[in-house]
């Protein structure tokens, strides 16, 4: 049975529908739960549930605890829903701005460094997922992942070999307007890593940042056979 998100959860910055459903399911359980238990309840992969749970921990609305074991074996991690500390999102936005500013002024290649960091995160997010065999499924995976991060994404087919994704409601917009090359390179790298990790038949052809205020456009195209996804240069601005 589909579990609706709690009132107002989708409206919170950084909470997309997928993440809100995870939080709603955890709150409905009323006690500690593992990522596997929540995944079974929501009909998703445990790695997907864990990805959202860890993000909710960062947001301050979920806490994690390790079980005490009296027998050999790796202790399981349980997650518990709780109220978000006041100002936590503002604090993390400030932290993101500090890190982006430092990267932009100290790294020899800020965009390249940011893209590599995003690609590593995307590969981790795609680890354990099933192989993605079609371009529509690949686009859906990107849209769902961006939605889980708080973006609003709308895919459309440009031609038989290209898919366009219109991305709005960026939860990092305040930081991006000041450090566009860094923030957008992270997001491009994330999409690249996600597609690479799942063996998707698409690659990121380009990412157009802020074509209009709060509106970016990603273009995905079929990967060239024999070359894999390769490394697509990050945008410079």
UniProtKB/TrEMBL annotation:
It holds the Pfam family HTH_20. InterPro entries: ArsR-like_HTH (IPR011991), WH-like_DNA-bd_sf (IPR036388), WH_DNA-bd_sf (IPR036390). SUPFAM superfamilies: Winged helix' DNA-binding domain (SSF46785). It comes from the Bacteria. This is Transcriptional regulator. It comes from Intrasporangium calvum (strain ATCC 23552 / DSM 43043 / JCM 3097 / NBRC 12989 / NCIMB 10167 / NRRL B-3866 / 7 KIP).
């Amino acid at each position: 049975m589909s579990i609706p998100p709690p009132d107002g959860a989708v409206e919170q910055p950084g909470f997309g529908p997928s993440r809100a459903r995870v939080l709603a399911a955890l709150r409905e359980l009323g006690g500690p739960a593992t990522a596997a238990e929540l995944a079974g309840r929501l009909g998703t992969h445990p790695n997907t549930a864990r990805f959202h749970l860890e993000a909710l921990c960062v947001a301050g609305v979920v806490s994690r605890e390790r079980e005490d074991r009296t027998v050999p074996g790796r202790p399981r991690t349980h997650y518990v829903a709780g109220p978000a500390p006041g100002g936590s999102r503002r604090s993390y936005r400030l932290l993101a701005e500090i890190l982006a500013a430092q990267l932009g002024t100290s790294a020899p290649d800020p965009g390249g460094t940011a893209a590599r960091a995003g690609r590593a995160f995307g590969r981790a997010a795609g680890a354990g997922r099933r192989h993605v065999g079609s371009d529509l499924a690949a686009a859906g995976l990107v849209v769902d992942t961006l939605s889980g991060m708080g973006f609003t994404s709308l895919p459309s087919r440009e031609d038989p070999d290209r898919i366009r994704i219109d991305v709005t409601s960026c939860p990092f917009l305040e930081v991006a307007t000041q450090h566009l090359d860094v923030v957008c390179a992270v997001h491009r790298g994330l999409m690249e890593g996600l597609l690479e990790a799942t063996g998707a038949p698409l690659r990121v052809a380009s990412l157009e940042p802020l074509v209009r205020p709060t509106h970016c456009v990603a273009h995905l195209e079929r990967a060239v056979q024999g070359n894999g996804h390769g490394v697509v240069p990050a945008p410079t601005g």
